[in-house]
Specification:
Chain lengths: 320, 163
């Protein structure tokens, strides 16, 4: 069997890929520092605990992106004849499952705090000999944990679209949404200070609803990807317009009487096949070869496109 | 979505500005009630932190600290003697304001009730009071008092358990 073409990203996208990797390393180190700071200041605040969990969790897309990036560009071999592209989808599944599970856990946890009416106690902290209400220290830690990720998120979004990288996209979206988590937790702590013991748990509940929503959307998409759903754009989750281009190209061929084709997403790249009913057998091999090349030239994302001449269109294929 | 978030932010700023004078506040106004009123303190002997004096009144390091604190807020103290277990259960039900029992912050009760920040560290042992949950103005007031006493306590008891 002929192994698939081994490249993942074309030359012009390699700098973008390198930049994405750099940003993810920065994100990881930054998030660890923010999580450590929050851990030492969180005390009895439920919202703070929830925000801490979210921060620690938002490491998973970054880490799974970096791990996947060491694997997916490997050449196909005897054991893995289709290459390693799908590792990206698996990484995506892992990070979205983690997100979903922790969201569910946190909803239960903060609901219990409300039901049991646990009043969070926040006393003072002594920093360099000064007595400060610990709530203020928590708010400062939350600001440190919320502002820079928004900037990182905005830097990653365009790269994710360019690279057709869903892990990176999830990560960027989560980073961008981080300020909401931070703000909710700050409001919760400010609420405790005003004597509303429930403010903290309510803030935590709102944060966890946001986490579980993110988790569910991404988990669904990850499962659909592994089930070979038709390729969709990274940012809007709509049918990729590339599919219409392929259809138009197939339609344009005067030697093709009828055609169907299907495509699936393997990580960053698409693989697919077409069944065509030729008008005659004349120059068939030549025509097939040329058409295949034309389709693969439409975008770097089309990794392999197999064209099969048939007498009749088989009924089992989807797209017409 | 973005506009919705601005509303609580503005509300919060208003609250903060309005509430600056006494911040943090108590959900159940404990500090306001005990100031010039009565502080209900449970104690359980654990020498040298809490001892039973000859006249039936508690003594020891912790009892002295609480008397000093009560003085700063012009409060009377109602003492209640019981086992540590019973006292902490009553504290959980908010029937007491404070529990003195020579507690340290590694107590398994940590998840059920609240402790003050350690008023004294002896090696790994961090000595704390049990305090009514979530009454943050009261806790903050007490912790500030304890922090002022920290240095003198440290020079007296910092290294060895006093006998």
């Amino acid at each position: 069997m002929q192994p698939l073409n081994s490249f993942e990203y074309p030359e012009e996208l390699k700098p973008a890929f390198e930049k994405a990797k750099r940003l993810e390393w920065i994100t990881i180190f930054y998030l660890i520092s923010a999580a450590a700071l929050m851990f030492f200041t969180m005390g009895n605040s439920q919202a703070m605990k929830t925000a801490w969990f979210e921060d620690a969790l938002s490491l998973t897309p970054s880490i799974s992106f970096l791990i996947a990036s060491r694997v997916f560009h490997k050449k196909p071999n005897k054991d893995f004849p289709y290459g390693y592209h799908r590792v990206v989808s698996i990484a995506y599944l892992c990070s979205s499952l983690a997100l979903f599970a922790v969201g569910a856990f946190l909803i239960i946890d903060s609901s219990m705090t409300l039901i049991k009416q646990e009043h969070p106690t926040i006393g003072i902290a002594v920093i360099f000999g000064h007595e400060i209400w610990l709530g203020y220290v928590m708010m400062a830690a939350l600001v440190y944990g919320s502002v820079p990720p928004v900037i990182l998120g905005h830097m990653k979004l365009p790269l994710a679209k360019q690279l057709h990288e869903k892990n990176l996209f999830t990560d960027a979206e989560m980073n961008k949404a981080d300020w909401m988590t931070g703000l909710a937790a700050i409001l919760g702590i400010a609420g405790i200070g005003l004597g509303f013991w429930w403010a903290d748990a309510v803030a935590a509940l709102i944060i966890s609803l946001d986490i579980i929503k993110d988790g569910f959307t991404n988990l669904k998409q990850a499962v659909f990807d592994l089930m070979d759903e038709q390729p969709k754009t990274v940012e809007e989750q709509k049918k990729d317009p590339l599919l219409d281009k392929i259809d138009a190209l197939l339609k344009k061929q005067d030697w093709v009487k009828e055609h169907v084709f299907r495509m699936r997403e393997e990580g960053h790249v698409y693989l697919g096949e077409a069944y065509v009913v030729p008008t005659s057998d004349e120059d068939l091999v030549e025509n097939l070869n040329q058409l295949g090349e034309e389709v693969e030239d439409l975008s770097w994302r089309i990794e392999e496109f197999v064209i099969m001449p048939v007498r009749e269109i088989p009924e089992t294929t989807g797209e017409k | 979505m973005q506009k919705v978030w601005k509303i609580p932010l503005l509300l919060c700023l208003c609250w903060l500005l309005a509430g600056c004078e006494n911040y943090p506040k108590d959900p159940n106004d404990t500090l306001a009630q005990v100031t010039g009123g009565t502080l209900v303190v449970g104690y359980s002997e654990n020498p040298p932190w809490v001892t039973l004096g000859p006249n039936g009144h508690p003594g020891g390091v912790e009892a002295d600290l609480v008397r000093g604190f009560a003085k700063t807020i012009q409060a009377q103290i109602t003492w209640k003697r019981d086992t540590e277990q019973n006292l902490l259960e009553e504290l959980e039900e908010k029937k007491l304001h404070l529990v003195l029992a020579g507690l340290t912050d590694d107590s398994p009760w940590k998840s059920k009730i609240s402790f003050t920040r350690p008023y004294l560290e002896q090696g790994k042992k961090k000595h704390v009071f049990g305090v009514v949950m979530g009454e943050n103005a009261f806790v903050t007031k007490l912790e500030k008092y304890l922090h002022q006493k920290e240095d003198s306590l440290k020079t007296r008891y910092g290294h060895a358990t006093p006998q």
